[in-house]
Each structure stands twice: as structure tokens, then as C-alpha cells.
Amino acid sequence: MEKSPAEDPSQAGKTQQQGAEDNVPKSGERPDQGTAPAPDHYRPDPQHERDESVIPAPDVANAKYQHPILAQPPEEFTGLKLEERARVAAGVTAVIKSMEFNWSEAGVSRGTRGLLKMNQKDGFDCSSCAWPDPDDHRSVAEFCENGAKATASDADDKAAGPEFFAKYSLAQLSRMTDRDQNNAGRLTHPMVKRPGDNHYSPIAWQDAFQLVADNLNALDSPHEALFYTSGKVPNEPAFLFQLFAKLLGTNNLPDCSNMCHESSGAALSPTLGLGKGSVTLNDIHEAEVILVIGQNPGTNHPRMLTALQKAKRNGAKIIAVNPLPEAGLLAFKNPQDFMNPLRALGALLGDGTQITDLFLQVRVDGDMALLRGIMKHLFEAEDLNPGAVIDRPFIDKYTTGFESFEQNIRNTSWEDIEELSGISRAQLLEAANMLATKQKIITCWAMGVTQQRQGVQTIQEIVNLQLMKGAIGKPGAGTCPVRGHSNVQGDRTMGIWEQPTKQFQDALAKEFNFTPPYEHGYDTVEAIKAMYKGKTKVFFSLGGNLLAAGPDTEVIAEGMRKQKLTVFVGTKLNRGHLVTGETSLLLPCFTHLDVDMQKSGHQMTSCENSMGVVSQNKGVLVPLEGQMMSEVAILAGIAIATFGDKINIADWVAMTENYDVIRDHISRVIPGFEGFNEKLRRPGGFYLPNGPRERKFTTKNGKANFTTTELQHYQRELEPGQLILMTVRSHDQFNTTIYDYNDRYRGVLNERRVLFMNPQDIADRGLQPKDLIDITSHYKGEKRTVEKFIAVPYDIPKGNVAAYFPEANPLVPVGSVAKTSNTPTSKYVVVTVVPARKTVGAPVEVRMAAEA
């Protein structure tokens, strides 16, 4: 093996050429992933460690009058137009929209160069979703509309520098829409807001580092600091960030994963031994049946549609479970087909590939009941065909808990199943019949499941279904939690976790010769509570936008205002940068596609995708003129200023000058990363160990565990007139980043302040379509109200409504969380709807497609 570039500087930044694919698994084979990992045990019952005291509901509706800097998006309407919802995703329109946005943001030259290197083996990793890239051949255009927008935003050739911040006060900036804030340009200079200031002003980097150091060193306890992370952060800076927090003495490492797939980790770790999915991209292609539950791939993970299309062409059946009939779940026109002479005409003029064979329009929070109904049918089928439906040999050899689970499913009444799910027994039989004789089964899910009250338990039922069919640990079968941000899974692997394992901390202690903290820190919800109650003084955010991503927006805002110092490392302006502590720093960093030149040469970082593949990320565009620094350099500068001679300064300098030094540290701390530098240079990267993929279940008992869950009847607790709200993204949005006001697939254009309602629910409240409404959430006797939304009739189950986040996040109580995972229940908010008390503002333009 060649020397690590940390020892041989001539190798720094070098990669093998794209095309050498000796490490690519062949169809039907499992990838080379090394030794199975150490156990990944999740705390079985962490509830007693959490702050259960009640935080009073903030005055959400009147907050705009109480604070000059708006924490919520402004209420002005932008001119709603309604069209028929789309019946097919992607196609020519997606290509045109991708190019329009890319070239308008980045310019033709920069924009095109960025797109052509995105997701290539010798290029950079898309900064949006974590859907995996093909192991073998990759298209010249290996991106989707979502990724094109994210890359265009990162490649923006406009600058938001000192002149921009001198022109606009924080209050003025807060009155911009979230779209206009993002589109203001790239952050280019370090900026500071000092006590009493209403503008950000320039600050020298060294002064910024010292300001952070002084505030951290002045804390009475290291636990008065919070270190928040976005899933966009690559592995190398993520590793340094968690190391920095632990050198300070705290595990207060809340991150965006706490709000999205924490429920997946909480469910998968005790049942299968690893809090990650078990499938590869090739497994998707080979599956016989794929269930897609609580997910909208057409908007949130568009490249997944290519994999589903390939599976369909290979004969797979797809069952979609969702409250909304999303375009991406119905049909797909693959833009790649336009380059294939045999398929181009069909892709242009045809109806596209039908994706879903069976659509089950489940009620919000009804997925657990639905899964029980399918499994109840499967048990009945097994009774009629012994040995033909349930995989008894697999169950006997690899699992425990089957008998209790089976009895629990058989005892569930059909009345409860149909009432809670909203799906008939006959429809559930149709789904069960698709599964009954198959074993190559994959279940995919996203936040439509994880953010329910019963999110963890619902995912455990998904695992139960996979286990009873023996559909795990073999080609074409397994679990597939579909992650959001590009490296949200990798950040957790790197140690961004408020509850680290003893094994991880011991390895870190040995590598860096210090005693790390072993007590658990704050997750995101607990961090919000701690800020609000004044228990913390420093909030340090490496990317992200907690204000817009988290629940209870005004509670977060009040907590931010109580901090002595807020530190935001980012690439573009967002609302979270404006609601600050007494002093605040805004520190500009590179994006994935910026060329990162350090002393040893052109650096690369790495990301881990949803399926456990770690691959390189090497920027291709010269950064805009300014003073941006890499995340690694920023963290090293702050660490040296904070700790001085208490750390090995020479090592931190070396890590900044050559990121291979960081990777050598990682290789000695984290199982699966042995030979990290060499393996990262393979075209396409490498697979991390995954025990469930090989039927090696590293649970405490060494078995895959069936779970006996309790089916809650939350819907029966509703009072007359109450509805269940879920928050969703629009099509021109990725996480909290708003690119434009359109939601093309749902037929909503030029507006975001809308509430999707069943037409009967609109009529029952004496409303008309397009009426202005106020929405109030109800939780433990408390109320939160957002004003000036527009009622939009939509195909959604009666009793359910949907709205975009972050606009609807003020309605989500910080105390309403999923069991075990502590994830905010953004997919289960009890609300009432009334006519708006105020109608001031711009007129609402509503033009139905039929009227155009």
C-alpha cells in the first residue's frame, strides 16, 4: 500500500482517475465492506434524562409587534396562482427549470462547470440530498433538478459582503423573504454584531477567533456551550467539530439529525444493531417489491426516481403510502432518456414510467395501523399456505421475539386498523398479496414517518415486516431510511451525537491524549429548552439554520436572544443569522464545489451517503473574491485560540494544511475507516461495514429483534373541529433553503403561505377555497396562532391538512416529541382553522388553470 499523503505530501489531494472500477460490486453480489462494525446501541429509555418541565406557549401571532427582527417569515403575500397538480415528475420541464435557475444564479460558465462535475467520481458531492451515486457508470449529467438548484445556489456569483450589511440593518434583512435572503449572494467576509448594534460589520479573522475563545473560556461550565451542526458539513470538519466540543468538555452536540432520522436510529439500533439502512443502490434495482412510506421522492430525492424506474423495468412492484398523491409517486419521465435514441421520443411525448402500482392514501399518523393490517393479512395467508408466506427458517436462526410480535398483530382488530389508517381491509389485502410470495422486499421511508408521535414504533413495525419475510441481509432486500442532507449520516458516524458510545470516546481519548466527557449532552429539543431557560451562553452553529428548521420558532428566537455569543459558520444568509445573541459572528466558509487550496495543495473532503458509501468531495470552482475560509481552517483557528498549549498546536496546523492528517486520525478512531486515505482515492469511494447487510446483527443479544409495539389511538383524542397538520417542503425548496415561491408538482405557484385542506373540511368550516385563514395549534391546553394563510383545496384525507415549513413551524410545540427519539412531531400537530382576523397586505391573486 502506498504511503498516506499525510506522510508523503506529494500525494496530497491526488485521486485515482475515474474509470478504474475494481471495487464495484456486480449485480447480485454484496459490496466489499470489511469487518462488521461494533455495536451501535441506542439508549433504550432516555426519557428520564430530559427536561420535562413545560415551556409556556409563546405569543406567536403578536411576536412581529414585539421584536423588530422577525423570527418568522414576513406575512406579505406574493401572488398565488393555482394550477392542476402534476401527474408526472421530471421530464423536459425539470431540465429547463434546472438550467434557468443554474445559469441565473451562477452564470453559464460557472453553472455548467459545476453541474458537469457534480456527483462524478473525480468531482464533488451534491450538497443537497444523500441519495447514493451509481457504483459503476455515471451519466455525464448525474444530477437532478433539486441538486441543480443547490449547486447553483452554492455557485452564486453575487456577493453579500460588507457593503451589503452596511446597507441593511438586521431588522430590514429580517423583513426580506427567505428566498430573497438566500438569493442575496455568497457571504464573503467575517462579520460581527456587537452589543447594541443593529448591523453586522467587518471583523478580522484572528479577532473573530479570539472573540469565540474569550467567551468559551469565560463559561462557568463547558455545558453552557452548544455546538449545532448541519448535515451539509463534510466528514473532516464534522470530526474536528465534535473533537473541539469534547476538548472543551461537553457532549452538547445537537444536530439536524435529531429532527429528521433520529427516529430511524432509535428504531434500527436495538432491532438490527445498526442505526442505518441495510440496502445498496443495486438492491433497489433488484427488488421484487418496494414500499415507499411517508416520502416524496419527486421533490426531496429526485434521483431516487431513476432507481425506482430501473426497478420497475426489472419487474418490481411498488406500493406508495402517503397522505398526498405526489407526482413523483405516480409517474416519472427520466431526463436521461432524452440522450438515448431508443427512448428519447417516448420520454418527450409519452406518459412516462408508471412508478406506483398501488397507492394507499393513509391518514396522517396512520402508518403503523396500515403496516399492522398488511402483516395481519400475511399471517392469515400463512395459515392457509403453511411455510409459503412467513420465512420460518430465517426467523428461527436469526431472530428473537417473534411469538409476542405475532400475537400482537393477530390481536389487533380490523376496526382499529381501518379507523386509524383510513385504508380499507380490501386495499390492505391487495398490498399483502403483492408481498406474500416475495422475499426481495425493500421498505423506504423518510420524515413522513420519523416525525410522527409513534415514529420509532412505526419503523419498528417496518423492521417486523422485513424480518417476518426474511427480507434483510440479501440482495434486493432490506431497510432503506432515505436521508436528507448530503452528509447527515456521515456527521453521526464522525461523532456528532449528544450520546456517544463509550467505545467512541475511549478511542478519541487514546488518539488525542485527553479525557473526553462521557455524560450525555443536549440533543436539539433539549438544547432549545436550555437556551430558552438561560442555561447556556454560547451557541455555535456549523452550517444549518436552527431557527427555521426547529419547532416552536419563537421559543428558539427567545433562546437565541439570551445567549452571550452566537456564532454562525455559513455560505449564504438565512433568517437564523439575524436573530442573535448579545454578540454575534457570521463567518463565511467554502461550499462543496469551491476549490479549497491549503499549504499542501488542493484539498478534498468526504461525505457518506444514505447507503453507507464514503466518497470524495473535491471542489472545481474558484471561490468568489473575498475572505472565505474552509470549515477546517475556521475550526482549527478557533481551537488554537481557545486551548493554546493545552492541545497539540502543531497537529492542528498540520490538519489545516493537509486534510489527509485528519483522515489518518479518523482511521484510528472509527471502525470501518482503516486505510481511509487510500480507500477514499478509489473511484466511487468505499462501503462502510454494515452488519445487517450480511445478517450479522450486532445487537446486545446478537439477534435481530422483533418488537411488540402499542398502537395508540391519538385521533380519538381530538375535539370537534380539530384537524391534524403535517409540515412539508415545496418543490422550490431544500430543507430550510427557499429557492423560489413555486410548488410546481402540487400546482401552487408564487406563494408559500397556504394550507392544503380537504374540500369537505373547507366547507364544514363555512370557508370558501382561497379564503384567508388563521391557524391555531393546540397542545396540553396551550395555543399558538399563525395568521394570514390561504385555504387551498387539495386531495388530502379528511381531517388532515398540510403546510410548508418554516412558515408552519411556529405551530409545532417544542414539547411535542416522538417517543424515545425526542424528534419534534412536525407530522402530527393538532390545529383549528378560522377566517383570518386581518386582511391587510397585498391582494391575493388566484388564477385557476381552467380560467387562464
Give a brief description.
This protein has 852 residues and is of the alpha/beta class.
Features:
single chain, 852 residues, alpha/beta, 6-stranded mixed beta sheet, 6-stranded mixed beta barrel, globular, disordered N terminus
What this model shows, in words?
Residues 1-52 are annotated as: Disordered. The chain has 852 residues and is α/β, with parallel strands linked by helices. Strands 6-5-18-17-16-7 form a six-stranded mixed β-sheet. Helix 10 packs across helix 21 (455-468). The protein is built from 31 helices and 33 strands.
- Number of helical segments with 4 or more residues: 31
Derived structural class: alpha/beta
Report the helical percentage.
25-40%
Q: Could you describe the largest sheet, including whether it forms a barrel? A: 6 strands, mixed
Instruction: Round the mean pLDDT to the nearest integer and report it.
Output: 90
Whole-number radius of gyration?
25 Å
Return residue spans where pLDDT drops below 50 for at least 5 consecutive residues.
Answer: 1-5, 839-852
Quote the beta fraction. Answer: 15-25%
Distance between the termini: 67 Å
Label the overall shape.
Answer: globular
Instruction: State the assembly state of the protein chains.
Output: single chain
Strand order of the largest sheet: 6-5-18-17-16-7
Strand segment count: 33
